[in-house]
């Protein structure tokens, strides 16, 4: 049986093919990693840095109000979740006329975040529902607005089974 000799052209083509496959796989993996980015907190860290002082001022204003806002979330039998927010001022009187909204945010994947629309169900009590909430850890974010300005914000880690 006659064997073909190993020439410089064959070695060169084998090296080009090998490194071509390695570079192709690396480029594909890099593109997939950049496209998904599920663990980022903000889309633009620069823009978040610019709003940092406003967030500190809003947090100080919120603390000065001394509002007592409590939230209760529970799993429904259909796989959704029911959220209730009880809002009271510093002296314990119910807060009415505010617009509350909620979000369930996945700590590891922003693509799974869910909005929860809350409506005033009673004096100072706001309720809403989220459909098809997967089990596991969530960040419950509650925001309250008055006349188009955010006056309350809280973030708490919850576990829904």
Automatic annotation (TrEMBL):
Transmembrane segments: 12-34
Pfam families noted in UniProt: FixH (PF05751)
Protein name (Swiss-Prot/TrEMBL): Nitrogen fixation protein FixH
Statement: the UniProt record of this protein carries the keyword Transmembrane helix: yes
Keywords associated with the record: Membrane, Transmembrane, Transmembrane helix
Species the sequence originates in: Bradyrhizobium cosmicum
Highest taxon, organism lineage: Bacteria
Entry annotated with the keyword Transmembrane: yes
InterPro entries, A to Z: FixH, FixH_proteobacterial
Gene that this sequence comes from: fixH
């Amino acid at each position: 049986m006659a064997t073909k000799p190993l020439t410089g052209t064959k070695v060169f083509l084998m090296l080009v093919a090998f490194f071509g496959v390695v570079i192709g796989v690396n480029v594909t993996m890099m593109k997939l990693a950049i496209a998904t980015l599920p663990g980022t907190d903000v889309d633009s860290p620069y823009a978040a840095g610019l709003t940092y002082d406003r967030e500190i001022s809003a947090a100080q204003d919120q603390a000065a109000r001394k509002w007592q806002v409590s939230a209760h979330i529970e799993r429904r039998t259909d796989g959704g979740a029911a959220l209730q927010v009880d809002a009271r001022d510093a002296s314990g009187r119910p807060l009415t006329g505010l617009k509350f909204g909620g979000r369930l945010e996945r700590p590891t994947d922003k693509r799974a975040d869910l909005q929860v629309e809350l409506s005033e169900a009673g004096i100072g009590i706001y309720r809403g529902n989220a459909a098809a909430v997967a089990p596991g850890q969530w960040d419950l974010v509650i925001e309250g607005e008055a006349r188009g300005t955010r006056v309350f914000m809280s973030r708490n880690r919850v576990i829904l089974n």
